[in-house]
Amino acid sequence: MEIISSTAQLPTWYTPERYMHLKRASYDVILSELWLRHHANEDIEQGKECKELSLLFNKRFINDLDIPPDDAYNALGLNVKLISSPVLKILAGEVMRDSDATDNRYVHEIGMCNLFGDGFVSLNLKLATNSEIIDEFTILLDKLRKESNIPEPKREFRSVEKFDAIFQNHVFEYINLTLWAKANNLKIPPRVFAEAIVNADKTPTFTATEIQNKVQRNAQQILSISYLKQLEVDIKTHRI
Hints:
Number of strands: 4
Distance between the termini: 41 Å
Strand order of the largest sheet: 1-4
Strand content: 5-15%
Helix content: 40-55%
Order of helices and strands: EHHHHEEHHHEHHH
Shape: elongated
């Protein structure tokens, strides 16, 4: 494995300026960009061909006009894998009737079943108030978790603080360069990262020690599936 000894050996697409514009994108666009990098990292780690790399290492986000609106994001052809919501999945009535057992049917015809590790709920909106549905769903949820032996997942991070860390710790810059290095069987030492990740006035943002500890740690946490799932839920429920 070749070791990169100076910033002159870094790819020409890398410029600190491009990440200033990404910072002004919406939560949904930033989340999609992180999922893109998560899947790219998975492919590289597994020795698969990483089709996302050509999308990551190009001239997107050079200026504000490059930031897509939320509803047009898929038009870019990013091929981001669809991630279904971990909160609720509504099952079609005919499927629910086929899979629902009698003991899963409650007073207001709220039914719940477990298929392939996912919880599905069907409900009759005509027969219950919102508060009644929420109360019954809470009972059903506890029952389903117990029967499925799937405990409630722990949230490891405070969303707002960890989201701020994406840009405070220049995570996109670090991840992009790391993915490029992995894909090309190269290694970028902390010293070169410290020279490449700079402030607007071109002064270093971090020391090599901070890169190795603080920046790397935050990048790994933010790119983890547990954090991305948490961020996805928090964006949808407006907690961030």
